[in-house]
Amino acid sequence: MRIGDICSNNPPSVATIGFFDGVHQGHRFLIEQVRQEAAARGLASSVITFPVHPRKVLHSDYRPALLTTPQEKLDLLAQTGIDQCILLDFTPHLAALSAREFMEVLKHCYNVRALLIGYDHRFGHNRCEGFDDYVRYGHELGIDVLPTRAFRMETPRGDTPVSSSLVRRLLLEGKIAQANQCLGYPYFLNGTVVSGHRVGHKLGYPTANLQPDHPDKLVPANGVYAVRVATCGQNYGGMLNIGCRPTLDNGAERSIEVHIFHFDRDIYQQPLRLSFMQRIREERRFSSLDELAGQLRQDAARIREVLENS
Questions:
Q1: What is the pLDDT of residues 166-177, one digit of tens each?
Q2: H or E stretch covering 65
Q3: Which among 30, 198, 229, 300 would be 20 to 30 A from 77, CA to CA?
């Protein structure tokens, strides 16, 4: 996948635009429409996106709860088979452009010949214009503006379009299987192993404490999870706890601790990836460490069963 920039060698392309957080099933459905249209026209296919959430640029205290970090997003976009990704630095100047002015940038700086618009996407200052306006501006500028079909999935809330907002809500509710269905892959969290309180060793379940690589990456709801663990070039099953460890009176400090099955190595300060498969239960307080240890044995047995069947 080529990374486009403001220069004369951008190939003429069919493009779409969006933040593409998570590169979920809805995004992939849209990108496939771009690829098909580009192939029909004999042009390159492009995705136009932003390395930093536009709202964070305008409001520095905004925490976007990202489904993917900038590099993770690029890696996932590359897997779609798109020819080119154009990274736009969202600045106050760019935010102030009208929709027509922004389309001029796409035409003259990035050689966009056709633009596919997602079913709910708007751009330009105040986002006050709509699809018919984009079509008119495109006709004036020499850009064909085309509508796209929305990707819909059957969820407990009914037949609904898949969106990044929906995936975030599901993850924050601990509904991992549904979130993964929307994403098209298991939700994952990358980080570095840091020192912990070592209580897991005393309970017979030593854990690796994870510090996420990106401060804005969304951490799912508190609870116990079945996860896949990638570290040291190998993949393992794991039992993950996210929460404040109420049995230990840990206060408000939230930790991400994983017990890796069949693993006995020192991985302090090593990178680690967690892929979420299923939430087993909510976090809760136990009356003693012995009771907690008993519950952990039950959790481990249940998680091994989940991992064997997934």
A1: 999 999 999 999
A2: none
A3: 229
